[in-house]
UniProtKB/TrEMBL annotation, chain A:
The chain crosses the membrane at residues 71-98, 119-140, 180-198. It comes from the Bacteria. It comes from Parablautia intestinalis. The lineage of its organism: Bacteria, Bacillati, Bacillota, Clostridia, Lachnospirales. Pfam families: Fer4_5, Fer4_6. GO terms for molecular function: 4 iron, 4 sulfur cluster binding; metal ion binding. This is 4Fe-4S binding protein. SUPFAM superfamilies: 4Fe-4S ferredoxins. Residues 221-241, 245-275 form the 4Fe-4S ferredoxin-type domain. Keywords: 4Fe-4S, Electron transport, Iron, Iron-sulfur, Membrane, Metal-binding, Transmembrane, Transmembrane helix, Transport. InterPro entries: 4Fe4S_Fe-S-bd (IPR017896), 4Fe4S_Fe_S_CS (IPR017900), Electron_Trans/Redox (IPR051684). GO terms for cellular component: plasma membrane. The keyword Iron-sulfur applies.
């Protein structure tokens, strides 16, 4: 499962950032694929990016003159969220892959959570509200509309957008100043924290994770827990990198559906499933026709 | 909890709402706005603007 997930993460990162010419020339792709958004956080100013970033697109729509409902991006959120929930974070986000790889570095004592996790976990909702919505609509820059999340926080933009572009483009490099230093500092801090804590950006700051987390309870893709088979051995809870209980797995807004619990379960009472009528497809096939399951 | 158990096809409603929003966004010209933003180097994203 872990190898499969790693392969999917790498493949998806390559597919969505496959414009190699951009890396070589320090330019970005300008074709029609950028009308659409990828599900994960992937800066559209990455030289290799073939699609748009959903959070960047959301802010671009909110930055328009007057107030407009950003229908297109909400459509992407509902579509991806209703089908997959935070599976997107666990399997399809390039910045999630970077954090996963950093966490594998055998340095420092590993932590699943930061101190004050129960408060800090709401940080991503604050980022979503204040930086993405309020910042984009009117608050920052002397009431001018700016993409505040991209400008002041997004480490994905710094890593995948700024660093490759500035490396290949001397003209852009000559224009860097204090703001770039600020963003670089945030990136370094998050990358360093990723070595110690599992996915700190996803757990505490990512506005996209906050949005997809709202869909976790009712998305089509679920991790089904077969209570009858469960021996309460807690192997899944010990394996969960986010310290979720078996009841919270899949349904909690924090669960990124990495599947480590599924792999750890010795009696296979956890499995990925496409939910249908409240039961897993596997459960349904196990019930003989005509059996009263209520 | 019961709400989700009793509304088992919420995901399908979510998908339909998503498709409706995408269609509405298309009619409102949202995709053009996204494309115009995405094909220019975003100065805010790279820490210059």
């Amino acid at each position: 499962m872990n190898k499969l997930r790693l392969r999917v993460q790498i493949l998806f990162t390559i597919l969505t950032n496959g414009y190699v010419y951009g890396f070589l020339k320090g330019k970005i792709y300008q074709g029609p694929l950028k009308y659409t958004c990828v599900p994960g956080l992937n800066c559209y100013s990455c030289p290799g990016a073939a699609f748009s970033c959903p959070i960047g697109a959301l802010q671009a729509l909110l930055n328009r003159e007057g107030f407009h409902v950003p229908f297109a991006v909400l459509g992407f959120f509902f579509l991806f969220g209703s089908l997959l929930g935070r599976f997107v974070c666990g399997w399809l986000c390039p910045f999630g892959l970077v954090q996963d790889l950093l966490h594998k570095i055998p340095l420092f004592r590993k932590l699943k959570r930061l101190p004050l996790h129960h408060i800090l976990k709401f940080g991503k909702y604050a980022v979503l509200f204040f930086l993405v919505f309020i910042g984009s609509v009117f608050l920052f820059g002397g009431f001018a509309k700016i993409p505040a999340f991209c400008k002041y926080l997004c480490p994905s933009g710094t890593l995948f957008g700024a660093l490759p572009l500035l490396t290949a483009n001397p003209l852009l490099r000559s224009q860097t100043g204090g703001l770039f230093g600020w963003k670089l500092g945030i990136l370094v801090l998050i990358l360093f924290l990723s070595i110690i804590v599992y996915r700190p950006f996803c757990q505490y700051l990512c506005p996209l994770g906050a949005i997809y987390g709202l869909f976790n309870r009712f998305s089509l893709l679920q991790i089904h827990w077969d209570e009858d088979l469960c021996t309460s051995c807690a192997a899944c809870e010990n394996a969960c990198p986010l310290s979720l209980t078996v009841q919270e797995i899949s349904r909690s807004p924090e669960c990124i559906r990495c599947g480590k619990c599924v792999k750890a379960c010795p009696v296979s009472c956890l499995h990925f499933t496409a939910k249908s009528n409240g039961y897993s497809t596997k459960h349904q096939t196990c019930v003989p026709p005509g059996t009263n399951t209520v | 909890m019961d709400f989700y158990r009793n509304h088992k096809s919420l995901w399908l409603w979510g998908v339909l709402i998503g498709i409706f929003f995408l269609g509405t966004g298309y009619l409102c010209g949202d995709f053009g706005v996204i494309w115009r933003k995405a094909v220019m180097i975003c100065m805010e994203c790279i820490g210059i603007g």
